[in-house]
Amino acid sequence: MYTKEPILVLWDAVKSLINDIEIFKETMDADENSIPESYLLLRSDITNTPFLYGDGATKIRRVDCDIILVTKGVATNTTDLHNVNRSKVTKALELAGLPYSALNLGYDDALKSTQYSWSVVIHYG
After folding, report:
1. Closest CA to 76 of 102, 101, 103, 107
2. 20-66: per-residue pLDDT in tens?
3. Which of 1, 18, 58, 85 is deepest in the core (most CB within 10 A)?
4. pLDDT tens by residue, 97-115
C-alpha cells in the first residue's frame, strides 16, 4: 500500500528512464511537430474505487492505472526502438516491485505507431 498519489507511484517506477524515453503524465502534450519517436504515457485513476473501509469511511482505495509505450513505426524486430524501450520499462516496473498485466496493442495504422500497455493496480490511503 502506498501513501502517495498513484500517478507519483508510477512516476517513481519509471523516472530513471527519462534520459532514454520521454515521459508524459495523463496526456501527451507535445505539438504535432514535436512528437517524440518513442514515449511513455502514464495514466492513473482510470478507475478509482473504495477497497477497505474502517469506521464507515474508506481507508484504502484501489486505483487502476496504465503505462502506454508509443513508438513511431512498425516494430518487427527485437532490436527496434519500441522493443528495446519495452524491455526497459518492464525492467523498471519489476525493479520497483509493481505487479502488472501487459498487453501488446500492436501497430495502429491511423497513428502510424506501435503501442504496448502495462496495467497496474495501486492501493493507497
Report:
1. 107
2. 999 999 988 888 788 999 999 999 999 888 887 777 787 888 999 99
3. 85
4. 999 999 999 999 998 999 9
Q: 36 by DSSP, 3-state: which?
A: coil
Q: What are phi and psi of 91, to 5 degrees?
A: -65, -40
The vertex-71 CA angle with 118 and 26, nearest 5°, equals 55
If one compares 95 and 31, the residue with the highest pLDDT of the two is 95
Alpha helix segments (H runs only) across 43-99 = 81-96
508524459: which residue's cell?
24
Amino acid identity of residue 61, one-letter, is R
| CA–CA dist 67, 54 (Å, integer) | 31
| Cβ pair 110, 27 in contact under 8 A | no
